[in-house]
Amino acid sequence: MERLDKFLSRELNITRSESKSLIKSGAVLVNSAPARFADMKINTDSDCVFVNGNEITYNKFVYIMMNKPKGVISSSDGRKTGEKTVVDILPAEMKRKNLFPAGRLDKDTTGFVLITDDGAFAHDILSPKNHIEKTYIAQLDKPFDSSVVYDFENGMELNGKKCMPALLESACGDNTKAKIVLKQGMYHQIKRMFKKHGITVLELKRVAMGALQLDKNLAPGQAKYISKDELSLVKSAHNMGDFR
Predict the structure, then answer these.
(1) Continuous H helices in the chain
(2) What is the DSSP letter of 219?
(3) Residues annotated as catalytic (active site), given as ranges
(4) Are 162 and 125 in contact (CB under 8 A)?
(5) What tens digit of pLDDT does each residue of 137-169 get?
């Protein structure tokens, strides 16, 4: 059983207040009867919900984009360390069982985290054989030069392990601010890659997964549901392509 306004918010990718407005306007039917209350409970397995004559199909899984703030860990359970997780800070109406972040960001790294309860999808996008692109913006303590770009693009070696080729270019025309596109996710990879060249990463933010960009309207800590069309962009190449 689930509240009607919560169901509509998730399935239509709209806010709770917009859901309540739809219900108040008489646009929502449950089993052919007008819905009168936003907090009415529906059975997502058996009840039929229509909005403006169109049936709303229940989706088994949810996909959430969060703009992760600093100081929050990319985990579903922080009890062992006593730290707040990305799941902990989700709005109450978005919380449900079995949510977890599909991939991790360091505690001090900000930006796009995809949270879901779809294990198969998460495994698919995180599988090394698929290598979805992840785009970051880094603030550096000093500018990088062409030798650093070359090392990124040709697959530098870190502690005896060769990295996959990565794209490095200037962001906003300033070589102390870098755009990086990776197709893998080794531990502290970007920080280690720059450190090899004597450069320290001061700030790091993930701004895209595949071709899906972080919503610029999301403040740190805020989250929104990802629509089906948006979700398909996660597996799409956008920034890097076959640059090698």
Answers:
(1) 4-12, 16-25, 119-126, 146-153, 189-195, 228-233
(2) P
(3) 106
(4) no
(5) 999 999 999 999 999 999 999 988 999 999 999
